[in-house]
What we know:
Strand order of the largest sheet: 1-2
Radius of gyration: 19 Å
Number of helices: 11
Helix content: over 70%
Oligomer: single chain
Order of helices and strands: HEEHHHHHHHHHH
Structural class: mainly alpha
Number of strands: 2
Shape: globular
Amino acid sequence: MHALAETHQGSPLLGLGLAALAAVLFAVGAVLQHEAAALSMTESGLSLRRLMKRRRWMLGQAATMLGTGTQVAALAVAAVAVVQPMLAVTLVVGLGFRAVRTRQAPLRLELMGAALTTGGLAVFLVAAKPAAAVHHPPPSSLAIIVAVVVSVLLVVGATLLGHGPHGALACGSAAGIAAGIAAVLISVGIRSLQEGGWVHALAGVAVWGAVVVAVVAILAGQQAYARGSLSWSLPALILLDPLSAVPAARLLLGERLEPGHAAIWLPAAAVAAVGVVVLARTGEPHPEDEPGTTAAA
């Protein structure tokens, strides 16, 4: 039996570039859709009919779909622990793009959040050196099914907590965990296809599992945004995506972080996490924005 990652040497720099491009596309899509949502609000709430007639909403949807395709391409050439943390840059790019669109300079707190996020992420990627395993057996179909079931149960359980801050936090957390697991399952499917032979069956299980988990993650994100403040749900969603993806990739793919540099990359990851929370909270005073599209990030 060949190791699933044995033929997957990958290209970390290319994957990093593709992940950064995906983050840019997600940010552009989110900002454009938020603007369209603000223009489509009526006294009774958001008008979907008016929203779908907005050209910027369609452009935002196109950017989000392109971002998803680019993220999948990044997962095909780089470790999950490279791609998923990089998507946190979506908040930073969105901040800059929104500043250009509104012609308003970012607040000092927003700039501090952007600096913490990008600086912490850069140090993390350099020190952790995420890499795929060289001799790691492919995961079993049962392990993939368990990952799918756990994701679904987490989302279902989160939706039972009701509305308010706790409900928003629970649904945002479940959405982030499911999104991270979906990324790992996509990577399993891609690498199984690259390996060829008997593992094509594994690829089918992984890809369909990824589709189910991704849909569940989107639904959980929508529930999170509908149940309470973005300051509760958005940081949880963005932070728990890589925090769940990294250990899941370790278990299913054998990916690793540089253990000897943990004293560096662990604090760097914490700094980036603080930056994400700051950025998410500074975006809160914009109630006219429709936050549902940020789940793609």
